[in-house]
Automatic annotation (TrEMBL), chains A, B, C, D:
Protein's name in the database: Helix-turn-helix domain containing protein
PROSITE patterns: HTH_TETR_2
DNA-binding region(s) from the entry: 41-60
Lineage top rank: taxon: Bacteria
Annotated ranges, domain HTH tetR-type: 19-78
DNA-binding as UniProt keyword: yes
Lineage, top ranks: Bacteria, Bacillati, Actinomycetota, Actinomycetes, Micrococcales
Organism: Microbacterium betulae
One Pfam family hit: TetR_N
Keyword Ribosomal protein: no
DNA sequence: GATGAATGAGTCTTCATTCAT
DNA sequence: AATGAATGAAGACTCATTCAT
């Protein structure tokens, strides 16, 4: 992210820059998606990355692929979170809320390209990490027995969208309210 | 809707056609919004309505105003639903799900123009009808005491978005799953 | 002008309203031309006059004809000014500056339609009243002998344009500066 | 100008063509502004230059910037004229009259964007070159002592406008008449 | 004659995508 | 493989003009 300060036009450094450019593009895309959503112009991302438009297309022929690359990073984080011995779904929700805009952009991307292999791969990772948390939640009695991975997946998507769509000033309040509704629904009743 | 078969360019039928055109535009917009969302090109709506672009702008200078007009119809329906003596939140949810795409478009519109009076007016109607159902729900013990109008409003928004974004074939399943999660959250716990 | 307050939509009063509408249109046009110049949309004038667009076209098929009608009023004033026994060119300039925007709009119209009879008629009236002032100026020794009507006509046009084009806050200063340059040129030297 | 024959759609010649396109756009703009004034459609300029609309916008995001580029060339000429050891204001007026249409377009542009830095820069150059001629004029006794740069600037603007607005066939006569009025005003009176 | 809606062409502007270097 | 300019197709919006009532 340090590299991605906008407007710093790079020289043509040839093939050597390939890996570096890729990183810069992903970082720039994450920023742009956070600010403007998935519908942001492609050119803005290239500009922010300080990379030619052509290079953007070479690395990521479609916006979906770029979104996948961005979210691949994010999901690394999520997996990291989920791997902690005492991690709960709440921790996952915390992360999702913190990255709401990017998450929402990803939800958009998924909606637009459910059939792209890379998208499915990411979906699988997501389901899998959710699965682990669900299992643990059930084990500790923090989660109702009839709540499955797919339910949580849906909740994550709704949470991301809702928070992302709220005006900046109300994000926190909306997140709290939504999570409250969800939690009560997810908690075992008794 | 009967009149709005696309592509049939109308003659200038004079001012008498004004009201009819307005209706055609609203109907066309509802269709288009349902198919393409709020971001659909204005021109597509005019075309679908069989009306010149200028007429569209005359009737609805901004997309928000058009969205409001569309939703004003929908909210009529919702109010009708809510007025039934034994109406429940579930009935409301049924309607929202049935009109998911349009509802989602409206959520977008509201997000984009919270400060437009017409939007606020609609928002107020929505809150008000939800309020009635909430009160009734509490009275009949179908709703937890700590669930308020704003919570339900949020749920409606999430429900609409989620169902609207799901691929056509999965809408019903998604709706069922989402409502299940929500319901358990909204039901009083014993 | 009292009648022309914008937005007051009139009922269809039929033919009886003809003369009145004509007046309202002229007054509205003067206002609009003053505010936005000759390029102002036709519709703005009809709206300001509280008259249907169709009526505007009926009375004034072209913008030129409307401009002529507007200026015909103004030239009445100018002729009135010029008829005063002790009137000077400076009095004319005062009037032109005071009506700079409208005058400039008229200059535009003339430039665009030198061959329209109505325009020529107005031009003749203008030349004629200037002629009177020139003669008187020469007689009183206030004007150089080699300055003719056409020179003054040109000066009037330039004065109007210049003042009209200046930002509102600088009109007076510009008018003063321009008149100073012109005056020294027009005054006899010796 | 040789390259700018209208309608010959070019291939994408890559970045190498950038400078050439820029030139073509400026030349085309000068022509178009001369023919139709500053209000000419942007698309006409792109077409005349044989360049895509997008390229026009890339090079000149606003019409003002394009006008500035056009006039920057013209002012080069004017500065060249003014630098001649024996140059007079009359030489400047000659140039202004010769480029009347473009000059008038520039006056429009300045009026429309007094606050744009590039415009101010050009204005400063103009004032400065006028200043040199004013100083020289005073020194040689060809100019009245109380005539300053601003007066001459105003005269230039009026001259440009007036000549530009005159029908082609009368330009010369109008220029002569206007300059005569101005000159007598600018000359020292004995 | 008046009315005011309808029409559609014309401009502006933004992007996704391609391509020469 | 990188660059960044070129392209042109949309889409938004505004008006001049026409026309049924």
């Amino acid at each position: 992210m340090a590299e991605s300060s906008e407007g710093v036009s790079r020289r043509n450094r040839g093939p050597a820059a390939a890996a570096e450019n890729r990183r810069a593009l992903i970082d720039a895309a994450r920023e742009i998606f956070s600010e403007q959503g998935l519908a942001a112009p492609f050119s803005a991302i290239a500009r922010r990355a300080g990379v030619g438009q052509g290079s953007l297309y070479r690395h990521f022929p479609t916006k979906i692929e770029l979104a996948v690359a961005v979210f691949e990073d994010n999901i690394d984080d999520l997996e990291h979170v989920a791997r902690a011995a005492d991690a709960t779904l709440d921790d996952l929700f915390d992360s999702v809320v913190a990255q709401a805009k990017v998450s929402a952009a990803f939800v958009d991307a998924v909606a637009a390209a459910r059939d792209v292999p890379a998208v499915q791969r990411i979906g699988a990772r997501m389901i899998s990490l959710i699965g682990a948390l669900v299992d643990r939640g059930r084990a500790t009695g923090a989660l109702a027995d009839d709540i499955g991975r797919d339910d949580v997946m849906l909740v994550v998507a709704m949470l991301a969208r809702t928070v992302a769509d709220a005006p900046a000033g109300e994000r926190e309040a909306v997140a709290r309210r939504a999570r409250s509704v969800f939690s009560l629904g997810l908690m075992p009743r008794g």
